[in-house]
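Quick question about two entries, pasted in order.
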Amino acid sequence: MTMMRARSLVSVVVAASLAVGGLSGCRSQPAVAVYIGQSGHITEHHVQQIWDETSELVTSAAAGQAARMPIARVDIVGLLLTNELYDRVAKQQKVTLPATMPYAEVAEQIGLPDSAELTRIYTQNLVLRQNLLQSVSAAAAEPSDEDLRGVYQQFADNQAINLDFAGFKKSLQAADKKELQGAFTLRDEVESLVGELDVEISPRYEDVVLGIYSYTDQASGRSFPIVSVPFGDPDAKPLVVDVA
């Protein structure tokens, strides 16, 4: 089995950098969505600003027809957290964004203007992830069986494989292993940073899983993360529900 490459662009914002699931935090200031160290918080005000702008754009584009938000507040929280963590890892790795960014291309993919803050954050996350993966892959070692078993389990849980672990491992080509080890290395970098910064999600939101590397089924178009950084209990129920 040859592993399919992760898509650099996706057609919906919800499939972006994070899948969201409740973290019982010790800190619960009403104005804070995510605690990052002592001062680098993601505020509810910022989340609301992006929500309001996106809602206005979606409503305007609907031209009087019924409009439905393509994202929830927790998706916005996830995108902002991803951006913060990738930006910090990029500085450590001396990785920068290119002078020309594909904002227009991504805007067309997700159906929002290229000037929308959501478009710009989403695009930055995609490009930073791609550049970080390229950077860490250069020195990546052979992936461990433990890490590969984690990937295999994601395929099994999503009913996307009919091989046992031995068969799965044997099916991986050298390029697959190199890409996966790059993803494992980036995951470790992000996990280390999360610990250093004492990142904590407000209990108003669900559990957040930072998807480092995803698999896309060509037949169905369905994607799911196979290498990720989880926060909290993935089976927890949301404390904030969006109705749109």
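Here is the second entry:
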Amino acid sequence: MVIADRTPRGADWVLLRTNDRTFPFASTDEQRQRIDLLLAHGYTEVWHRDGTVLLHRTTPTPVPGAHRPGPDSTPVREAVPEDVGANLLLR
């Protein structure tokens, strides 16, 4: 299982939130777009509750931008949203 990040991994199970922004996504819209992308490329929603969605890969349809880590792979460097690490009290 993968708790989704900004790079699709082609995992058999993916857990995503939709009602609160989750690092490293820049917005909840981006998280919903990821769900739509996965649903369009071989995943099925098997459970959801309180803004959390569990998807299961039911067909081997390639997911655009997917990167499956392997023994010789290079880690994907995630882009950090601008407001992460900022002092929230100064806003």
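Reply: Residues 26 and 37 are 16 Å apart (CA to CA). The chain has one helix and four strands. Hope that helps.
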